[in-house]
Amino acid sequence: MEKITDHVYLVRIPIPYDFREVNCYLIEGKNGFTVVDTGDCTEEAMAVWVKTLGTSIPIEKVVITHAHADHFGLAGWFQQNYQASVWMSVKGYEELQRARSLFVDQKYRSSLGSFIEQHGMVVQTGQEDRFHRFEAYQFKPDVLFQENQELLLGDSIYQTIPTPGHSPDHVAFYQAQDQLLLVGDHILQGINPIVISEKEGDNPLQGYLSALKRLREIKVKYTLPGHGQQIVDLDARIEKLLGHYEKRWAQTLQGIQEKGSTAFEVSQFVYGSNLSHERASSALIQTITNLVYLESLGHVKMEKDHHDGLYYFFKKAVNSY
Ligand SMILES: [Zn+2]
């Protein structure tokens, strides 16, 4: 447990993939501690929590930044073992239920898989299971909150700021007095968070960029992300991310051939073709996100080819974002 302010602590919980660790936070209050994000539902994660909390630290509630299993996976476990109440956003619970029902029907893989395949990548089976430990989804939140609502976490008021993009339900928690922002996976220090498209019609980058710009308007001293190191200078990090996107869009447009290209072809142009299946899928999803955004700005056009069933992107002659 690492102390960040007088009342806020960081606990790094191991996860068996991607970033290797998720940053969970403990906010101390007179009725016990509030846990912000839990880690995924693994024996290893539970063991770290048990060791960290011992028998003497009471847990009052658990709040969740977004409905990805590495962030909510132990919510049910906290309800059962610590009698904590679990707080989640209305949208977050909708996302959780959607994922749960797809999971129960075993459709999650096929719906995401066919989305990816229509964009030109051949999906290898048996790859997606790690995201979906069934037990992680088996809980019902005790309290649902809205976006732009004030919540009492510990003894302080936090505002929920909608920060969609990495997931549609993503929220950040902001505490004005200490200028502290729990930013989840919306912004990370050394890495550009993936902005996820999951189905036709999604244009998540629009909301993601507006939320980034909105965060420039608040005063922040501590920016605490869901993975990796604390963000030292939020404004600088936001500027860097915005600049990164400008470059990516130029590269993305460059990767589209005259005869049209699939998103997978463009993603191989941008990210290279020597990636593991998992990384190649993430690269493809980010590329689809960029292409759909560029389409909404009128720079590209997407068309379905009725012979092979794939989507192709074509460049249109417009030269500014
Ligand atoms: Zn995460």
Describe the overall structure:
- The protein is an alpha/beta fold and 321 residues long.
- It has one domain: Metallo-beta-lactamase, Chain A.
- The chain has nine helices and 14 strands.
- The strands form three sheets. A seven-stranded mixed β-sheet has the order 1-2-3-4-5-6-7. A five-stranded mixed β-sheet has the order 8-9-10-11-12, with no helix packed on it. Strands 13-14 form a two-stranded antiparallel sheet.
- A hairpin with a 4-residue loop joins strand 10 and strand 11.
- Helix 7 crosses helix 8, helix 7 crosses helix 9 and helix 8 packs across helix 9.
- The radius of gyration is 20 Å and the shape is globular.
- The termini are far apart.
- Biggest sheet details: 7 strands, mixed
Shape: globular
Classify the beta-strand content into a percent band.
15-25%
> CATH topology, which one?
Metallo-beta-lactamase, Chain A
Helix and strand succession? EEEEHEHHEHHEEEEEHEHHHEE
- Helical percent range? 25-40%
Gap between N and C termini, in Å? 44 Å
| Integer-rounded radius of gyration | 20 Å
Give a brief outline of the structure:
It comes from Mesobacillus persicus. The protein is of the alpha/beta class and 321 residues long. The chain has 9 helices and 14 strands.
Question: What layout of secondary structure does this protein have?
Answer:
Blueprint: E1 2-3, E2 8-14, E3 21-29, E4 32-36, H1 43-53, E5 59-63, H2 69-72, H3 75-82, E6 85-89, H4 90-104, H5 108-118, E7 143-145, E8 150-153, E9 156-162, E10 171-175, E11 180-184, H6 204-215, E12 222-225, H7 234-254, H8 263-271, H9 277-296, E13 300-304, E14 311-315
Parallel strand pairs: 4-5, 5-6, 6-7, 11-12
Antiparallel strand pairs: 1-2, 2-3, 3-4, 8-9, 9-10, 10-11, 13-14
Helix pairs in contact: 7-8, 7-9, 8-9
This protein binds zinc ion (ZN).
